[in-house]
Amino acid sequence: MKLTGLKVVDLSVFLPGPYLTMVLADHGAEVIKVEPPGEGDPGRAIGPADGPSTVFFRNVNRGKRSVVLDLKSPQGREALLALCAEADVFVETFRPGVVKRLGVDYEAVRARNPGIVYCAISAFGQTGPYAGMPAHDLATEALAGSIGITLGRDDAPAIPGIPAADMLASLHALSGVLMALLRRQQTGRGDYIDVSMHESVLASMPNVLGPALAENRHANPKHERSMGGSAFYQVYETADHRHVVLGGQEIKFVRTLLGKLGRLDLVPLCEAGPGPHQAPLIAYLREVFLTRSQAEWVEWFRPLDVCFAPVKTLPEALSDEHALARGMILTDAAGRRHVAPAIRFRDEPPEPRLREPALGEHTGAVLSGRPAT
């Protein structure tokens, strides 16, 4: 696998850091998950369980080795630094200042290993007025403005269905770690990576920041291209109280659908771009979609070259024929389902180990230097 031989020391908990290090593990890295005594990673106790741990925990910690260390003790701190001396990557998600107090900050780790790539993921980054504020995904999205453009039908801000700040920060961190490792091949030196969830969200809205950057105004979601101002980028209810979406605004798609419906006279509304002038077309399509069930619309659209999709439930998404054909759902020996790695290589594909570690399971083996099996 691409990352075989890479050694990662992982102090992270919850979601952004653990997902990053799981991706590394899926592609061959040895990931040593260092957990505190007692309950370990809080993710072990979040949500439903279908085995020895919660689905949340196993979804981001498969294939790792768990070591329990008390970093508040000199012995625990020294054991961690000894692990870092032989590691390539170090990941932590504490609030800024915590690793310094524990004696495992970048300077302390770099003193043992100048080549280490040290990645810190936090809510707001290591500096700035918000650096010390407590926050999880939702608060960072709110401050980045993305919640302010995610509105429900009542025009009130809505909670997104995915943890965007967590996952975006994780993926930015993954990119940073891989870039730093690539650069280390030329210089022999590691680096310090400061990834902010807040900044990851800000950096991930290039298509919706136009009004703010160019005109210093807040976007009106009902009038913007990808937030409700276009009839062909919209959610519609069906006769059975389910929903479908139109997700492509190119005029060729508009002409195809409106031609099939016998309403080419409405095409100019889309040719004029998104905005309130499309309201009559949106109203018309709402009425049309209420005339058939979701399943009937799926069949009706099948021969058409139009960006259309049914809104599926999560169980339906996990049993979707395309996801299954692509091998996105894996099953372990105990019959539990897992989501496969999304990064695919033709050569050296990932080989995820579909087992999460018990708390402290590998403490003795890792500290005594025994290799992973």
TrEMBL record:
The record's InterPro entries line, in alphabetical order, gives: CoA-transferase_III, CoA-Trfase_fam_III, CoA-Trfase_III_dom_1_sf
| Gene Ontology molecular functions | transferase activity
Basic and acidic residues: bias regions: 346-359
Region (Disordered), start-end ranges: 346-373
Q: Which Gene3D superfamilies match?
A: Crotonobetainyl-coa:carnitine coa-transferase, domain 1 (3.40.50.10540)
Give one Pfam family. CoA_transf_3
Q: Which UniProt keywords apply?
A: Transferase
The protein, known as? CoA-transferase
**Organism of this sequence:** Methylobacterium platani
Q: What is the lineage of its organism?
A: Bacteria, Pseudomonadati, Pseudomonadota, Alphaproteobacteria, Hyphomicrobiales
